[in-house]
Structures are given as structure tokens and as C-alpha cells.
Automatic annotation (TrEMBL):
Record's keyword terms, sorted: DNA-binding, Nucleus, Transcription, Transcription regulation
CC terms in the record's Gene Ontology section: nucleus
Name of this chain's protein: WRKY domain-containing protein
Subcellular location per the Swiss-Prot or TrEMBL entry: Nucleus
DNA sequence: CTCATTTGACCTTG
DNA sequence: CAAGGTCAAATGAG
């Protein structure tokens, strides 16, 4: 990797980390000034999208424009440098972590017991969402050529956790996976943390979300599996993710305008999440 | 051997 | 009755 590009990618990640910390404080009801959650999320998404853009890809985005482009450099060209799996890995994890942050924020808005179900449309199946899932079923769906997979929390029995989720591919080219969460985690794995270890002597804690005053430990969440376990390659992920930046902007779906208008109305949404059936969940 | 996944059967709902 | 959701035995990976 070229040192200059490496520096830029790290700078983007650090910028995202700073905003993530601010977001964390906001979510914990600690005042940090007039910055809104929506602004912070935009900035974090931009930062990690920028970092992703520093990863080599066979089909680089040509028209990516930051949702806060007045503050961020526009991506106009890409250098033929070797891809950084670490940058890609942490960026994708951070974007997924944002989904969790959004859940927690919306729970505060609507009340913890209200949000029982939400969807996330992402270019990759949302498997690394901070919880440990066990697959318990797979079905052909009449309205879709793709099968739907059913997961429940690994701790469903041990800790009487009733959280489940369904993952289904809803579109090809670019691939879009819909992850539907039902129920709430009552297990110990409610916290989510992402740490990054590189191969050398450094150990960065790039981004970390906490809840309930304890941080996910290795014993609670023993693995944050490498993204390599999925069928598509790292390059595919980077490409698909960037392609979906544009795709998502064109198909931004909002079921509950009141929630999204609260703070998320300006989101460019790299990974879509919207709440449905909120009123029907009781 | 243990544990996660697969898959056909069964259950529930409209 | 059809479709979606869940169960549980069989299977496979480590």
C-alpha cells in the first residue's frame, strides 16, 4: 500500500472514529453541543465510505458524492494501489455498527418496548451485527426467487433471548440483502464492540459502541468472523458497497416518516434501515 | 465428539 | 388450502 493513500484512509477512519465517539456520547444523553445524530451518522458513513474508496476495486465508483460533500473531498479518481483488507474490514464493520447505533437511538425516541421489528437493506447480508446468530431454517419464498434464511440468537435457550432475524436476497446486480429483525435481545450480547488488530505491534480500537455499562468481551462474543467467510470476495464487497451508495439513494425506503424526520432525514444511507409495522407491533 | 447447518416435516395463520 | 415460520433429525465440519 502506498503510504500516502494509507495515511488518507487512516485519516478518514480516525475522523469516523471521532464522530462515532460523539455519537456514543449523544446516545448516552450526554450533551455535546448542537450536533445532531443525523449529522454524526452522515459524517461517520462518509468517513468509512471514503476509507472504502481507498480500497482497490475493479469497478471504481465514478460519481460518488458525499452526503456532506461540503466538508469532504470528492472522489474523482482511484489509485492503482493494493487493497487494504484491514481498511475494508473495519469500514464495513463500522457501517454495520452504525445500524446498531440507529436501533438504540430509535429505541430512545420511541421507547424501548416499541421497536420490535426493523429492516436493513444492505449490499451484503447483515451477518456481523454484533450478535451471535444460529440458523434454524431456510425457506423458498413464493414472491422471490431467493431463499429466506431464519436465524435466532445463539443464547435463545441459555438466556431466554427471543431475538430472531431473517435474511433474504431481494435484488441481484447489485446484490441487496434484506435483514429483518424481530424481537429484542435480552441476552448478555446486547453490547457491541469492534476492535481492530493489525498484524504488527499496534492494536487499534477503532470504534466501539457500548450499552449497559459493559463492553462486549471475547468471552461474550467469541468471534467477529472475518468477512472472508462469505461467498463474495473482498473486491466484490467493496465494489458492491460503493455501487449501492448510488443505488440506495435511488431507492431510499422509509416506512415511518416521523421517525426518520426526527434525525435521519438527511441520511444518504449506505446501508438502508427502516422501521416498519411499528404501530402494528403492539 | 461437539456444535452449527441443512432440510423435510410439522405448525400457524389468514 | 397455501404460504410462511419453526422444529428437529440428519449431516458435515472442525
Amino acid at each position: 500500500m502506498f503510504p500516502e493513500i494509507d495515511h488518507k484512509a487512516v485519516a478518514a477512519l480516525l475522523r469516523g472514529q471521532g464522530c462515532a465517539n460523539s455519537l456514543k456520547m449523544l446516545l448516552e444523553n450526554r450533551e455535546i453541543g448542537s450536533v445532531s445524530v443525523g449529522t454524526l451518522i452522515n459524517t461517520i458513513l462518509d468517513s468509512f465510505s471514503l476509507a472504502l474508496s481507498f480500497v482497490d476495486s475493479p469497478n471504481p465508483p465514478q460519481n460518488y458524492e458525499s452526503s456532506s460533500s461540503q466538508n469532504m473531498p470528492r472522489l474523482v479518481s482511484r489509485s492503482p494501489f493494493k487493497k487494504s483488507s484491514i481498511v475494508l474490514d473495519v469500514s464495513i464493520r463500522a457501517i454495520h455498527a452504525l445500524t446498531i447505533a440507529r436501533i438504540q437511538h430509535c429505541r430512545k425516541i420511541c421507547g424501548v418496548e416499541v421497536i420490535e421489528k426493523y429492516r436493513d437493506d444492505s449490499p451484503t447480508p447483515l451477518l456481523e451485527d454484533g450478535f451471535v446468530w444460529r440458523k434454524y431454517g431456510q425457506k423458498n419464498i413464493k414472491t422471490s426467487p431467493h431463499q429466506r434464511c431464519y436465524y435466532r440468537c445463539t443464547y435463545a435457550k441459555d438466556q431466554n433471548c427471543n431475538a430472531t432475524k431473517r435474511v433474504q436476497k431481494i435484488k441481484d446486480n447489485p446484490p441487496v440483502y434484506r435483514t429483518t429483525y424481530v424481537g429484542q435481545h435480552t441476552c448478555e450480547a446486547l453490547s457491541y464492540a469492534v476492535s481492530l488488530n493489525n498484524d504488527d505491534t499496534h492494536c487499534f480500537k477503532m470504534i466501539q459502541f457500548e450499552k449497559c455499562n459493559h463492553v462486549m468481551s471475547e468471552s461474550v462474543m467469541p468471534q467477529l468472523p472475518s468477512i472472508n467467510h462469505q461467498e463474495i470476495t473482498m473486491e466484490d464487497k467493496a465494489t458492491d458497497h460503493m455501487m449501492n451508495l448510488e443505488f440506495d439513494n435511488n431507492e431510499f425506503l422509509v416506512d415511518d416518516d416521523k421517525i426518520w424526520d426526527y434525525d435521519f432525514s438527511s441520511l444518504s444511507s449506505t446501508d438502508l434501515m427502516f422501521f416498519d409495522n411499528i404501530a402494528a407491533s403492539d
